[in-house]
Amino acid sequence: MPYGKTHLTFSLPADLAVQLLTPRETPGAADEMAAVMQALAAPVGGPTLAELVANLGPQPTVAIAVNDKTRPVPHQYLLPPLLTQLEALGVAAEAITLIAATGTHAAMQPDEFAQIIPAEILARYPVISHDCDAADLISLGRTRRGVEVLANRCFMEAGLRIVVGNIEPHQFMGWSGGAKSAAIGLAGRSTINANHALMTAPGSELGRYDDNPTRQEVEEIGDLMRIGFALNVILNDHKQIVHALAGDPRRVMRAGIPLARAIFQVAVAQPFDLMIVSPGGHPKDINIYQAQKALGHATLAMRPGGTVILAAACPEGTGSAAYEAFMADPAMTSHEAVLARYQREGYRLGPHKAWQIARDASRVRLRFVTDMAPDFARRLLLNPVAERPDMTAQEQLTQAVADALIALPPAGHVGIMPWANATIPLLMQA
User: Which residue ranges make up each domain of the chain?
Assistant: First the structure.
């Protein structure tokens, strides 16, 4: 099982009914850089880069939204051909700004940029980080729901705005990719909060796009941002590029989702009694904020009362001070208490993560394998396996599996999801 930047192992009896749920084994492109270059040369829809730059005037400027360190985007393949083509079209290197699209995550510091941007690009192009609480955000108007769209000033003042990222499953937005890198990644906190409040609305579900209210508002935000071009890739479970797509952001999503679904969606004949789950290792388990998605995906295919063993290193803790503050309330002693408080108070970014965990952990028995301190994990109601701080993750997983096998009902159905954040389990029976 992927775990942080390493792996854990476990074994199961040979006579168990076990299903391995993983993205479909799909080879990466023989030449990943060439695949990106081909996508840039043949957009799936909308103007080409050459046409877009030609309309910018004599001193063109470009801003590119790039995902932060919580997303495994292969910028080493995406950015060089994109930047080379922009310069070949007459855009000066100093007129191309890369913006780390952090959303409500902490702004990245300059000494962190090397985690996401190749050194040769850092040396040549301006790179900055978004701050969702910046005082100089620009108001672009309102969505049909009346949500004011606040956006990064540097991004909006550029003549051409480009988004770069992955198309992959998202637990309530349906799919990441397209406009989302900027529509959420470069938006103001109030805009993001208002959009994410839709996560409890009907249709805001994993794998849905056309009738997903959260995702469709993201498309509206992208329209208000006037994003001119998207460069997206679809990765396999080895984080290799399988498909690259470029062009108008909506067209990229339309073309990319069927390709992504063919890789990430797995049919499940019956609910599971036990699921052993990893978000997919670093950076998908960098913190609880990211790792929770694995629990959300796994419980879609669980019988009520079944056991989910979640193995997530979480070296950066929860990833959300607001989530920690919400859970520090002495009254938060059960998942039911969390759900009741959230219903009373309504959506807030950070506490929404407590609601997502409680929603799923109240349906199943969660066992948490992690490097986090056991007492801290218990305060978060994550039911850690570790009984002492020096218990290794490998020891925790071995113990959790042994305990779960003892409690497994006769003819119990077991699932394994090593890359759960990128896996869509589709339960075939009602």
Answer: 2-23+269-427, 32-264
